[in-house]
Design goal:
Helix content is 39%, strand content 23%. The relative contact order is 0.23. It is of the alpha+beta class. The protein is built from three helices and five strands; from the N terminus they run E-E-E-E-H-H-H-E. It has one domain: Alpha-Beta Complex (Outer Surface Protein A, domain 3), CATH 3.90.930. The radius of gyration is 13 Å and the shape is globular. A hairpin with a 2-residue loop joins strand 2 and strand 3.
Length: 95
């Protein structure tokens, strides 16, 4: 179930705000990435505590956009961030 995943920021990623955007540096690869304000908010919400569905709900409360569009966009962004090794999935909580 994709919506139940809990994305978390990668340990090897440094993040800094610069001129209205968020710049990410992957320390192992040396590659830089830039996120706009909405992407930066998604990054902030990737704390390992929130499921993808929770991230979409938080963005829906903050931005004037349909939930289905946000879900698609967030899914695509998370996929790109994961492919670049910038985020991972938080370990499952033990009962």
């Amino acid at each position: 179930m994709v919506g139940a995943r809990r994305p978390c920021q990668g340990e090897d990623v440094l993040a800094r705000h610069s001129e209205g955007s968020l710049v990410l540096l992957h320390a192992r690869t040396g590659h830089y990435y830039t996120l706009d304000d909405v992407g930066a908010r998604v990054w902030q919400l990737c704390d390992g505590e929130r499921a993808v569905d929770d991230i979409v709900a938080a963005l829906h409360a903050e931005y004037d956009a349909p939930a289905d569009v946000l879900a698609t966009d967030v899914g695509e962004l998370l996929g790109e961030l994961a492919a670049e090794g910038l985020i991972g999935d938080a370990p499952a909580a033990h009962a």
